[in-house]
Structures are given as C-alpha cells and as structure tokens.
Amino acid sequence: MWQRLFALFVTVLAVNGCSTMKPTDFENTTPKLAIEDYFNGRVEAYGLFEDRFGTLRRQFTVTIDGTWDGDVLVLDERFTYSDGEKDRRVWTIRKKGPHLYEGSADDIIGTAIGESYGNALNWRYTMDLKVGDGSLRVRFDDWMFLLTQDVMMNRATVSKFGIEIGTVTLAFVKRSNALDSAVNDDERQPSGVSAITASR
After folding, report:
1. Residue 74 buriedness (CB in 10 A; 0-12 / 13-18 / 19+)
2. Fewer Cβ neighbours under 10 Å: the N or C end of the chain?
3. Into how many domains does the chain fold?
C-alpha cells in the first residue's frame, strides 16, 4: 500500500511543477475530493517547509478539528514545530458553488479562493507569514490531492513579488470523525499566527 502511495506522491510532485496546471485538469480523477466531508472530524498532518534552494527549514505536525454545518466549514488547526514552538490557525470556509470555496483566517489578507475538481483542490491566497518577531506578506498557490479516502497530499508554492521563496509539503491522514474530548480548553485558545499550511 505504502509503495502505491509513494508512487502517487511522486506523481503529485511532478505535475505540481507545471505552471499551466488548472483544477479542471483533474475533473475526471477519483476519489472525488469534497473538503467539507474530508475535514469534518479529526485530521492529522505532517509537514515540511523548504526554501527555494530545496533546503529544509522547518518540520511540523498539525492536528485539525473540523466541523461542517451544511453551510460553513470551520477548521481549528494546532501546529507543533520540531523546535517546540506551538501555534494555531482557525479557518472559516464557505462553499459558494459546486466547485468554488471561499476561506478566511486571521492571517489571511482578503479572501482565499479555492477551486475543486475531481480529486484536486487549488487554493490561492495572500498571507502574513510569521517570520521571527515579525511577518512577511506572501502569496500561496496551494494544491491538495486526495489519494485515498483517508490520505491527502498538499503542496504549496510560496512567493513574494512573483518570485518563489519556498514550498510547503503536507501529508494529511483522516482520523475518527469524533473530536478528541481529551483536548484541554487551554490548548484550544488562540496562540497567534502560525508560520506554515500550512497552510500550512
């Protein structure tokens, strides 16, 4: 099974390098991705951030608790970085049509626009990315690919003034739909803006 997932992952990375890739290119692919279904419950993610030269800069894990009420998807993301830093982001996402989503979060500038076809979803948004004690306003071109009903890959290109400065790679694994009741209320309090996706 893992050999097959690895092969699919390599394929994802290869096609993501194509600058002309469009969400509609994946219209006939399966399994069909509906983020309101996939993220309704608990999802865990494991991520890397690499700079434009391919140097690994950060490693992190994310626990995501999602709730879908039929109109709004809320994603409560809690990040833990390999250096011990913790952070949090809360996304509010609305489905605007069969293929269109709009999302917002505290560190997102304006509205994130998502377009989904087949097993793929492309998000485009501007973010104030936390860097040390400050932040850097960057642009994300963020692709998600559902590989199985439980496993999804995410690769985002981060750019500034149209110049790529790095990439974020995430592997999502869907857990039980029941939220973990053991989460302490203090842990669910906002702790600031995360440095993805990340997003990250």
Report:
1. middle
2. N
3. 1
Task: Compute the average pLDDT of residues 34-48.
Answer: 98
CATH of residue 42's domain is 2.40.128.20
Q: Round to whole Å and give the CA distance between 29 and 176.
A: 25
Over pLDDT 70: what percentage of the chain? 78
β-pair type (120-131, 41-51): unpaired
Q: Which domain holds residue 170?
A: 2-17+28-177
Q: What is the pLDDT of residues 12-28, one digit of tens each?
A: 444 444 458 999 999 99
Report helix, strand or coil for 32: coil
- The answer to whether position 171 is within a domain reads yes
pLDDT-derived band at 181 (thresholds 50, 70, 90) equals very low
Residue 188 located in a structural domain: no
